[in-house]
Amino acid sequence: MSLLELDGVKVHFPVKKGLFFDRTVGHVYAVDGVSLSVEAGQTYGLVGESGCGKTTLGRAVLRLNDITDGAVVFDGTDLAKLPSEEMRAFRRRLQMVFQDPLGSLNPRQNIESILAEGMAAHNIGKDQAERREKIKEILAKVGLPSNAMSRYPHEFSGGQRQRIGIARALVLEPDVIICDEPVSALDVSVQAQVINLLEELQESLGLTYLVIAHDLAVVRHISDVIGVMYLGGLVEEAPSDALYAGPRHPYTKALMSAVPVPDPEVEDRRERILLHGDLPSPANPPAGCRFHTRCPWVQETKCATERPPLLDTGDGHKVACHFTAEIEAGTVKQTLATGIEAVISTEAVATEAVEVSEGDAETADAPVKKEEEPATVPAQADAGEAERAEESPKA
Ligand SMILES: Nc1ncnc2c1ncn2[C@@H]1O[C@H](COP(=O)(O)OP(=O)(O)OP(=O)(O)O)[C@@H](O)[C@H]1O
Ligand code: SF4
Ligand SMILES: [Mg+2]
After folding, report:
1. CA distance 38 to 62
2. Is the minimum distance from the CB of 213 to ligand 1 under 6 angstroms?
3. Could you tell me if 233 and 290 are in contact, meaning their C-beta atoms sit under 8 angstroms apart?
4. Domains present along the chain, CATH in parentheses
5. How far, in Å, is the centroid of ligand 2 from the Cα of 335?
6. Which CDD domains does UniProt cross-reference here (predicted)?
7. What was the pLDDT predicted at 360?
8. Does residue 55 line the site of ligand 1, with CB under 6 A?
9. Does residue 307 carry a pLDDT above 50?
10. What is the pLDDT of residue 46?
11. At 153, is the pLDDT very low, low, confident or very high (cuts 50, 70, 90)?
């Protein structure tokens, strides 16, 4: 059994109206049926664009949000059903590191006081002296000097503050750390240092991570398994290498096609799928496949009516799309039917791109992308054209 298992987790926020906000007029389907497993000592990377429900899912694991439905099984116990008092003991074992370290650190407390607070609440260390020793040890582990204890959050740089956030989680000796956008607020040069620190700590302390990010490059190296989220649900999940070598879901293909390739020749010729349009509102998600309003491969049958389940397509590579096999085989082509706002560029050289990117696709080292106007085809010129496209059969 995995250390952390989510089964059909849903978090729906009621939308209230009325003078006293006493009428529920709808729901925000922020997380809508997510199942995933995180193995002990491993890292699960969760990616997806802003608003797709990543933070809500992370908070649900810690029961910081009410879970509408589903199970969150941690070390054999379903946390979703646990009374609040019993949940307290599990809170220590599951910690969270936030995106904005300054916002999550009390500016009026010094670092020792911030770190000791949680320790005292969870009865770690028998007295202040013992807690102080532990704090010193953890500060050294995260690469901060011991004199940091008497200083205040504003005296540190962004990267150092994130180290304090990590130290605050570590002093509680957790098993799992949920890192929500742990480096998105940091300079690119500092991002790698913090990611490396997380990896070192995982190795030395045997930690298990759920790392949330909107940036594929951030989760790539640290993750064993990556899950791609779209509008409250997982659309693809695979071992990290397999996902980068061959994304299978149209949404992941689009995300990956936006990552530059370090070989200028391949970069010029590779397929680029630019998704237009915003994420639909999670208060009113599209029926059927949630991605069908933006999918460049959308088909007339099933896509708008049946929600595709996340199915294993082999070797643990799971995809939620009715046409995975056909898209791989090329028997279902990209289509510019009504409802799609996609711009599709030149011919596919995906395999070549993947070979090169597998070699040394360190995005930091990647040369600046050569700007070449792709041979674009507007998805939808006008409403009349859209109607006509709707009537005509799709490829
Ligand atoms: N307490 C809440 N009440 C109502 N709606 C909420 C609440 N918290 C989040 N939401 C909504 O749920 C959806 C998912 O939000 P969430 O913060 O989980 O997204 P995210 O993937 O973490 O985005 P980001 O990358 O911007 O952090 C959003 O539409 C958000 O507005
Ligand atoms: S089910 Fe249809 S709309 Fe959804 S990703 Fe697959 S092809 Fe696109
Ligand atoms: Mg978030």
Report:
1. 15
2. no
3. yes
4. 4-223 (3.40.50.300), 257-391 (no CATH)
5. 11
6. ABC_NikE_OppD_transporters (cd03257)
7. 40
8. yes
9. yes
10. 97
11. very high
State the pLDDT confidence band at 274, using cuts at 50, 70 and 90: confident
Q: What atom in ligand 2 is closest to the CA of residue 295?
A: 8
Give the residue whose CA is nearest to atom 7 of ligand 2: 298
Distance 108 CA to ligand 2 centre (A): 51
Residues 3-14, mean pLDDT to the nearest whole number: 97
- DSSP 8-state code for residue 114: H
Q: Are 232 and 9 in contact (CB under 8 A)?
A: no
322 Cα nearest atom in ligand 2: 1
| pTM summary value | 0.84
Residue 85: in which H helix or E strand, if any?
helix 84-93
Which residue matches tokens 């990956």?
256
- The residues lining ligand 2, judged by C-beta closer than 6 Å to any ligand atom, are 250, 289, 291-292, 295, 297-299, 303, 308, 321-323
For residue 147, name the pLDDT band (cuts at 50, 70, 90). Answer: very high
Q: State whether residue 214 is helix, strand or coil.
A: coil
CA distance 248 to 332: 13
Q: What is the pLDDT of residue 266?
A: 72
